[in-house]
Design brief:
By secondary structure, the chain is mostly helical. The protein is built from twelve helices and two strands; from the N terminus they run αααααββααααααα. The chain has a domain of 205 residues.
Length: 339
């Protein structure tokens, strides 16, 4: 039986479940919007911002895993390193925030290149557990270096004055920086997609993953391209770290938190699917912010105070469990991708 036939069977089997879930979701969101319209929009935008940060972090991880087969546990450390380097650029060097948006990702990308050339290059084609253990050790080294240089106290990054205002949306006022973050993330995601799917660079990397020997035979320098791809993945994580730190500040545990969430996003979206990473990142981010609001609204409508539970931290994992129960390879994943 062909893959396309299996896909049609899968869709036919789960479509009633999806339709029922979609209907219940729409009803719940509608009730919440009627009860608390301002809070609903505020949290929806907050969830979108959070989701976009997850997408930016996960894009780099998905590129390295999907195109190069490396399970990069150090991706969270890249995210944290980008945040702390931006602090040095803005506070230590006195440069504007706009400079940090460029310098910090480039610096993190260089760290990624050094890691790829000295360690990971020798692990291509090995079992995923090998790269996982190697990058876990590198993660510990980077995190300890960050604590030794910047300390363990939380730090704040000053945003540009133009982004410190609020934007009136009628029922609520949203910080302008959040809208800026979403806009920058959308442009970045589109640029990465075009690079991977519409340029010779992206096509040759994908060809090299499928048949490295033949790709090199026609004159493509695969080691250089793989190094460039690792630079891109690390720089994306660093870029996300800069954007996120300007929103919430930085702390030495942010890397651990986001690398786990990034893997959750990859699993939900489907290993090997960039589009799946984008969809699942936004889905998890918005769900994490809106579900507590929905529960609070229903607690008010039904007069059940115990229903107003703050389960934001649990939502990504609950969504992952539900998705995997229905579709074990994720929303857009390929069956047996890493087998």
């Amino acid at each position: 039986m062909s893959t396309s036939e299996l896909t049609r069977e899968d869709l036919a089997a789960v479509s009633p479940v999806w339709w029922l879930a979609a209907l219940l979701t729409v009803v719940a969101l509608a009730v919440t919007f009627v009860v608390r319209p301002g809070l609903f929009i505020d949290q929806a935008i907050g969830g979108l911002v959070y989701g976009m940060v997850l997408v930016l972090v996960t894009l780099g991880l998905s590129l390295i895993l999907g195109l190069m087969g490396i399970v990069n546990f150090a991706h969270g450390a890249f995210f944290m390193l980008g945040a702390y380097v931006s602090y040095t650029v803005v506070v230590g060097l006195g440069l504007p925030f706009w400079a940090a948006l460029i310098i910090a990702p480039l610096a993190v990308g260089v760290v990624g290149v050094v890691m790829e050339m000295t360690v990971l290059r020798y692990l291509y084609g090995s079992e995923p557990i090998v790269s996982l253990l190697a990058t876990f050790g590198l993660t510990l080294m980077i995190e300890e270096a960050i604590r030794a240089y910047w300390g363990t106290a939380p730090l704040e990054l000053q945003r540009p004055e133009v982004l410190t205002t609020g934007t009136d949306l009628g029922v609520t006022t949203v910080p302008t920086y959040r809208l800026f973050l979403v806009a920058v993330a959308v442009v970045t995601i589109a640029a990465v997609y075009l690079l991977i799917s519409r340029t010779d660079f992206g096509l040759t990397v994908r060809a090299g993953v499928q048949d490295g020997e033949m790709t090199e035979f026609v004159g493509v320098n695969l080691p250089v391209r793989f190094t460039a791809m690792f630079f891109l993945g690390a720089a994306l994580a660093g870029f996300a770290g800069v954007l996120y730190s300007a929103e919430t500040g930085m702390r030495t545990t942010m890397g651990e938190t986001f690398v786990i969430l990034a893997f959750v996003v990859v699993v939900v979206g489907g290993v090997g699917s960039l589009f799946g990473s984008v969809v699942s990142g936004i889905l998890l981010g918005v769900s994490a912010y809106l579900l507590p609001v929905v529960l609070a609204a229903f607690a008010e409508v039904l007069d059940m105070p115990w229903l107003a539970l703050d389960i934001r931290a649990l939502v990504p994992y609950l969504v992952m469990i539900l998705i995997l129960l229905v579709r074990p390879r994720g929303l857009f994943g390929e069956e047996g991708f890493l087998e």
